[in-house]
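I hope you will forgive my troubling you with a question about protein structure. You will find the record immediately after this paragraph.
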Amino acid sequence: ENNKPEPIAVMKEMAKNFEGIVVEPLKVKYPQGAEKQLINAITGRSVPSGKLPIDVGCVVNNVTTAFAVYEAVQKNKPLIENIMTVTGKSLTEQHNYLVRIGVSYSDIVEHIGGLPDDTAKIISGGPMMGKAVSNIAASTVKSTSSLLVLTEGQTKRKPEGECIRCAKCVQACPMGLEPYLLNKLARLGRNEDLEQEKVYDCIECGSCMFTCPANIALLDYIRMAKADVLKIMRSRPKK
């Protein structure tokens, strides 16, 4: 994104030596890095519901995947390590680490000198799309990108109010869904209606819940409903 001029300048300079490579700075926008949003921002193409990037002539690889392919092909090296960010306002130091896949969260915590006394929750991933770690003895996997340490004040939710149909969640949804409706259907367990409303298109970015003035936990219910609907869809006989 264009708020990082230093690495953009370095990458543009390096790209001069390679034909067909273009460094494209993008607007600072969340969730800009999501696959379908990235394709639209760069090419202007829209991936239809239920389709894949290849259906509009695109293949998306993040930096880690591209580098892993290079090491596999050029160095015959399997994917055994990953760059991981360890961050949190209460930490005395915040760094990026090269971590072996399979290392436990507890080992990483020990490496940074332990958790601060005011730690209330540990998130694997970012503040919007990450998931809470219930057991720090769990191991990292190839998709583990960061560890976020939060205090009690940062995790406390405000009490839920009543939905007033303000449509802020609809405006915020990058997939063009209606989160307030999906939330209502999810609470009622109406999976057929959820499938019809394309709940499977949800990328779980959390924009709806972040913008909701009533502090409704929209993503919590939508995420669970999405998992149920996908299970039903996968269980059907293939035509």
Q: What stands out?
A: The first strand starts at residue 81 and ends at 87.
